[in-house]
Amino acid sequence: MKIIARDIPPRAAWALEQAGVHPLLARLYAARGVRAKDELDDGLGRLLPPSGLKGIDAAARLLADAMAQNKRLCIVADYDCDGATACAVGVRGLRLLGATHVDYLVPDRVTDGYGLTASIARRVAERGADVLITVDNGIASVEGVAEAKALGLQVLVTDHHLPGPELPAADAIVNPNQPGCTFESKSMAGVGVMFYVLLALRAELRARGVFDASSAAGPPQGASAPLGGSEPREAGSVGAPRPQPKLDPLLTLVALGTVADVVKLDANNRRLVAQGLKRIRAGQMPAGVAALFTAAGRKAPVATTFDFGFALGPRINAAGRLADMTLGIECLLTDDAGRAAELAATLDGINRERREIEGGMRDQALLMAESLFQEDEEPPPAISVFDPDFHEGVVGIVASRIKDKLHRPTFVFAASSAPGKAHELKGSGRSIPGFHLRDALDLVAKRHPGVLLKFGGHAMAAGCTVAEEAFDVFEQALAQVAREWLDAAALTRRIETDGPLAPEYCRADMVDTLHREVWGQGFAPPTFSEEVQVLSQRLVGEGKNHLSIKLIHQGNPIDAIWFSHTEPLPTRVLLAFRLDVNEWKGERKVQFLVEGAQL
């Protein structure tokens, strides 16, 4: 473990402070690459224009034509939170814009697997659809798109995953990561891509005279069309143009899916998330989002990105892991508060079950991982574990836990429960900085043809399927790639921090200020580091697996807690910590959430 303070460019910090940014925030922003105050402008007018997305004009024309001809649209979603929110944004948005026949279908994780398969395409056709729209999937679905086209369907692929060597023969593809796309935000989540398609569709409908361009202010810079307006009539109706509909209510779902998918929060993604948070804090959100806040015991008026990532997102994801993601999508689609409360309570119960399953699997998988090396040895450069009793719905979460514990690229496999696939293992992987997981899988596939039956994903998270008899080959092959790509520095866990925290900032109101900002992947939440004196420490929690600490920070006593850590600390130690507020009997006191220690 190495604790390293980020470089804070003094000129940038000074410029931000002179522009009126709070001194602590100025320092934090400068350390994350912000150079001027206008970069912090999260207004809708600062969004990147949809026109930068390759294929978006063709997508808008396809959908506008389909709506004018009253065709039936069917969205095929992924079974995670990004897919669920993208589906809900698609259904809600298309209906807002006047589509009269909008259906959706979400594959089953176990029986269908990921993406648009040929069998899914046939099911869409059997439902009577004319147009198939993928959200958060489809860029690798060459066979599924071909089947859909053979069945007479028009196909629009909206995705954000990295493409394979061959693109599907869809009528239109919108994906910032497809070859030839110059869109600046390559990190947009699937829900963001679908939202942008709706912006372009509305602009196309306005150009066709369906909406009255004079009913709202001129297009803000970057949005191609204003987000304001009012409810539409049917898109194919005859008569004078009508005021264009609002799309900004969809931003709450865009924000949730973006954070939950752990994509990089570049400037454009931060604006999308900030806009969603503002609406939630003002009470402007779908009934299902409000119900999820209640079920999770979180307060919407002070909503944060942490609520998305650690409270709402996991409850929606749990449906796709253990049950049916239709539950999650219906929760996001309903406008009935009572129905939303029932669905949110169901999702909360499924999430509790998920935590129980995960706990047992995590302990078993960690034991298996630690058996791969001696106590006085370093772990292997990459870790792969499999147990016949593992549940395939939570292998990704368990892989993430092991990765966090051992700081190694990790794959966890479970036996497939799909009919006729008993000999196959489904694996989910999580990586560390410096090891692009999908590229590593690609190299394994090239070196060992036939070992990987399928694979896909991103740099930090990926999935694959292998034959059970090929597991050992995969394990050794992945470890070999890791040996070649990772040096000792990369294999040493590093915590980047913002350095010491001045004691005058250890205030509850300052913590509230920090929590209101948009933090996440690629724009790390504030983490500080200092040498402190430990006064006392004890294990707490039901399983006695959290370390509660009383310490002295710059002469002042303060409480701290280190979750899922049981090893005692020395009297003086360099700690990395985040700030939180502990409320007890009406009193709000700052506490440190320990992230790591350099002993």
Description:
47% of the residues are buried. The protein is built from 17 helices and 19 strands. The longest helix is centred in the middle third of the chain and has 34 residues. It is an alpha/beta fold and 599 residues long. The strands form five sheets. The protein has a five-stranded parallel beta sheet, sandwiched between helices. It has a five-stranded mixed beta sheet with strand order 9-10-11-13-12, with helices on both faces. Strands 15-16-17-19-18 form a five-stranded mixed barrel. The radius of gyration is 25 Å and the shape is globular. β18 and β19 form a beta hairpin. About 4% of the residues have low confidence. It starts with a strand and ends with a strand.
